[in-house]
Amino acid sequence: MMLVADKLRVTHVSTHVSLRQAIDRVRTERILKVLQLTHDAVRRLGIEKPKLAVAGLNPHAGEGGLFGDEEEKYIAPAIAQARTLGLDASGPWPGDTVFFRTLQGEFDGAVAMYHDQGHVAAKMLGIWRGVNVTLGLPIIRTSVEHGTDFSNAGTGRGDPRSLIEAIKLAAILASNPAGARP
Fold first, then answer.
1. What is the CA radius of gyration of the chain?
2. What gap in Å lies between CA 129 and CA 6, rounded to an integer?
3. What DSSP character marks residue 94?
4. How confident is the model at residue 179 (pLDDT cuts 50, 70, 90)?
5. Structural domain boundaries in the chain
6. Residue 61 DSSP class
7. Residue (of 89, 68, 71) closest to 80 by Cα position
8. What is the pLDDT of residues 64-118, one digit of tens each?
9. What CATH number should be reported for the domain whose range is 2-175?
């Protein structure tokens, strides 16, 4: 899953699982796969050489092991492997600043370690502006970021902005061939 809202592009190592399961999914192989998918998706959005940021799992990206060792055991090795494949990946960066830095243009995409870490950042920009892109499929799939708006269904009060953005983004993805890794 990649959420796109303006210049913020966020992918996730895990999505709809408990926080305990999300922590268990923070593994080098999974992070590397998400980095590859992110790189390819951002290239399809027209950025030839994407700069990717990787969020840490723990506060302050573990603070050198003070707040956990997942950054050293799993995240940093995934970043190192991504670099050997030619991807411009860096981190692990503190989750409380990496998405702001991405929005400011320092990075072209960011990898979140779990659902809320990435979703909060994207939804703060406006829930009606974001788009959900499913990565790794043989087809293009975009949808509204906010999911089904049951509270407004049939009332005439639905807001089409996220749907319009999803259609626009699908058109951009369709106009760019799948980018090969460098």
1. 16
2. 8
3. P
4. low
5. 2-175
6. G
7. 89
8. 999 999 999 999 999 999 999 999 999 999 999 999 999 999 999 999 999 999 9
9. 3.40.718.10
